[in-house]
């Protein structure tokens, strides 16, 4: 992510999805690795503003982080965060429709109104001024444009994409073992759709030689109250569905 410091007046600066260098407050939009630059177990540069679900996922990755370093924001509710005696920021978290707990940040102050999108998936049913009135008040837009190109098409909804995956599995044959590449936060809807369609759990082999990022994702999923019903870590569980990863584990240094 670009390493910007945003000025908020009176010598106050904040950063979004970048935890290197100094700032008066930091914002984290979601849990993907490319938005965690500079963050580590013993990080203590200041306060981090994020959603409750993002913090929960983050603490499975960085176990040394203290909850006291975090400002939790609820969706579509104005939060006043005082930086010092002269500067306070008004923060609204907007559903980014990307990963569990992912948000866009609407930040207001003496500089006006700024919207920091982070990664998001636009949905005309979600991202309306009726649902989020602050979207009608944007003076500066900081937009993630990673996939902002005509060659990338996202015409299918998540529901339609999941339906296609389920149909492919049916066509492949119900008597075969199915290996699914599931190793990123944001694939939770696929897990739920497969369980709903076939009423079989997906096996996560936490004893395998996993890449650290895959282990983080699978561990968090196995503990999630929203996914426990659809997953198993038990080798004794009879299921045709097995999660796998495209990420290579680091070579053993011994």
Automatic annotation (TrEMBL):
Keyword set includes Nuclease: yes
Cited SUPFAM superfamilies: Metallo-hydrolase/oxidoreductase
Q: Which UniProt keyword terms apply here?
A: Exonuclease, Hydrolase, Nuclease
Q: What InterPro entries does the database record attribute to this sequence?
A: Metallo-B-lactamas, RibonucZ/Hydroxyglut_hydro
Metallo-beta-lactamase domain residues are: 23-165
GO biological processes: double-strand break repair via nonhomologous end joining; interstrand cross-link repair
GO MF annotation terms: 5'-3' DNA exonuclease activity; damaged DNA binding
The UniProt entry, under Pfam families, shows: Lactamase_B_2
Tell whether Cell cycle is among the UniProt keywords. no
- The name this protein goes by in its record: Metallo-beta-lactamase domain-containing protein
**Which lineage ranks, top first, belong to the organism behind this chain?**
Eukaryota, Cryptophyceae, Pyrenomonadales, Geminigeraceae, Guillardia
């Amino acid at each position: 992510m670009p390493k910007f410091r945003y000025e908020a007046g009176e010598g106050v600066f904040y950063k979004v999805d970048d935890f290197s260098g100094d700032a008066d407050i930091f914002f984290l939009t979601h849990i993907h690795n490319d938005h965690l630059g500079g963050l580590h177990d013993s990080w203590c540069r200041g306060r981090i503003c994020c959603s409750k679900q993002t913090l929960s996922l983050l603490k499975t990755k960085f176990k040394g982080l203290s909850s006291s370093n975090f400002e939790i924001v609820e969706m579509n509710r104005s939060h006043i965060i005082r930086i010092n005696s002269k500067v306070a920021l008004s923060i609204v978290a907007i559903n980014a429709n990307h990963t569990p707990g992912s948000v866009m940040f609407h930040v207001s102050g003496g500089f006006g109104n700024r919207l920091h999108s982070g990664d998001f998936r636009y949905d005309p049913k979600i991202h309306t001024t009726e649902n989020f009135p602050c979207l009608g008040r944007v003076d500066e837009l900081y937009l993630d444009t990673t996939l902002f190109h005509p060659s990338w098409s996202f015409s299918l909804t998540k529901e339609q994409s999941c339906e296609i995956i389920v149909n492919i599995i049916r066509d492949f044959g119900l008597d075969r073992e199915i290996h699914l590449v599931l190793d990123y936060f944001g694939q939770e809807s696929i897990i739920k759709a497969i369980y709903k369609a076939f009423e079989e759990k997906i096996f996560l082999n936490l004893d395998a030689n996993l890449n650290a990022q895959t282990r983080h994702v699978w561990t968090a999923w196995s503990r999630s109250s929203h996914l426990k019903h659809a997953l198993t870590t038990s080798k004794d569980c009879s299921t045709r569905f097995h999660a796998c990863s495209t990420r290579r584990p680091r070579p053993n240094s011994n």
